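DM from R.C. (forwarded with permission)

"hey, sorry to bug you on a friday — could you get me a structure for this? deadline for the figure draft is monday and I only need the backbone to look sensible"
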Amino acid sequence: MMYGWTGNILRVDLTTGTTTVEPLDRDKAKNYIGGRGLGVKYLYDEIDPAVDALSPQNKLLFVTGPLTGTGAPGANRYVVVTKSPLTGCIANSTAAGDFACTMKYAGYDLIILEGKSEKPVYLWIDDDRIELRDAAEIWGLDSEETIKAVQKATSLRAKVACIGPAGENLVRFACVMNDAGRAAGRSGVGAVMGSKNLKAVAVHGTKGVKVADRAGFYQAMDAAFKTLEYEYVEEFHQTGTPGVLSLVHEFGVLPTRNFSVGVNDFADKISGETLADTLSVRKRMGVACPGCPVACGRVTKISTGKFAGQGFGPEYETIGMFGSNCGVDDFEAIAAANFVCNRMGMDTISTGNSIASAMEMFEKGLIPESDIGFPLEFGDADAIVKLAQMTADREGFGDVLADGSYRMGEKYGTTDYFMGVKKQEFPSYDPRGLQGMGLGYATGPRGACHIRGEAQDLDLYGVMNWRLTADRGLEVLDPLRSDDKPPLVKDVQDWFTMIDSCGMCNFMFFLMVDEDQMRQLIETATGVDMGGYEGFMRTGERVFNIETLFNRRAGITNEWDTLPKRMLETPMPAGPAKGQVVRLAEMLPEYYELRGWDDNGNISDAKREELGLA
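My reply, with the result:
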């Protein structure tokens, strides 16, 4: 018997319509934990990373962690793992909500989806009863309509993860959406789901999760909750992630006009405080995922006018991309663009960033008005909402945007206005004023990302009370300093890999749980000895390295470990980070050395042997 893990894998062959239940490999579980780690290990072993991401040969994995559904703080996440159609790299997109816990309660650690159905279908899991059902009548519905329709056809208690029209139309940054407006949001996992003609996965489970040491587990949970940083939790209650915007602007790294500058004169109009005072349905109080004390989610409503509507969000990243990065200060338009993306099932970061890139390219005369259908200028509030819908539908110029801004740049002769890494668009932090963020962006296995090793926490928050700061004799980190960042970036990448693998929310890192508490939670839940702090971090390192091996086998060399020319060569023109560029060339060699990689970013034989990698 396994504890923490259910010990079961559900394998679904969409080509033949057959399903089988297999035992979870215990060694893989011990060495890769779950979620992001276990998912990449199974994917690495089962597919050729060089396959076309939208072909039937690619596989799509839904993976929970051993803490998911146990009641541990913030342990409510699953990870969708596949090869990305946007980047060609490993894709691992996490989402919170009830779906992940219910999947565990039904008795499955992983759902492996392979092949391609001849017609649209959805998967219905009711504990041990598993069915593939016809989805013809729900194909074309948006994510909210799909969830309601599937629940009506199965059980009102079912939890549903689905794609909207963007996934059906193979938008390269389509999401998988689930309850409470949550999304497995980046890298195009929804497009892979759409390529398989799979509309939804619905689950209902009643089995619960067993832990190895119940008394020890409750003691570890109690210790975690007692270390809660109530000051920061209260801030999230007040404003959610949009509250970060004012701080980012204060540091001079709020992306504005396609990352041309990091400050603007309208940040207060689109701040978290303004959102709470104007559009939030629940003033000063967020929506919580299961077992989460933070409650960072927002429900917003536009009561009247052309953008009237209601939905979840927008989050900070969405506001940064549709707002300041597009030069738009109209909060109702930003929220409306967010509602479109949520209903259509589309990553707001890549959508907003790609529109901003198109705005600059139009401004510079690189994209003709005849291709877009109208003048596309920074500050055009109507355009962000219209283009979001056109992108989801692949209508007109939206068909160009749907392939991402890197490919848009290729189409129009230059990728200089693509702001991202490995063909994935930057989130809402300009790395010229956050040197650790620049290194984190460049080296992230899934491309530009703020949550696969939250390097911005190093620069914006000084890693707060985390032991890595004290171990290196550091109290406050300088975001403009680069010489201290390589070891810190490496360690936060490995640390967040573990959070993603165990099934816990990233917010637990700086609000509550340190690495010793995390290790105790995993050990008491599973009964597996992690080998102390060193063993815990080595597991994270193992996962990060196998993701890199996947990319190398997919043809993604270290030449992609870089940043746009603007970040490396054009100094920030104004604000607190004025005059700064990312000093990547100074940081990357040390980072490679610390990782045990050669000058070409390849993992050494010694490091492979140390980590037990083939």
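R.C.: lifesaver. The two ends are 28 Å apart (CA to CA).
me: no worries. DSSP finds 27 helices and 16 strands in the chain.
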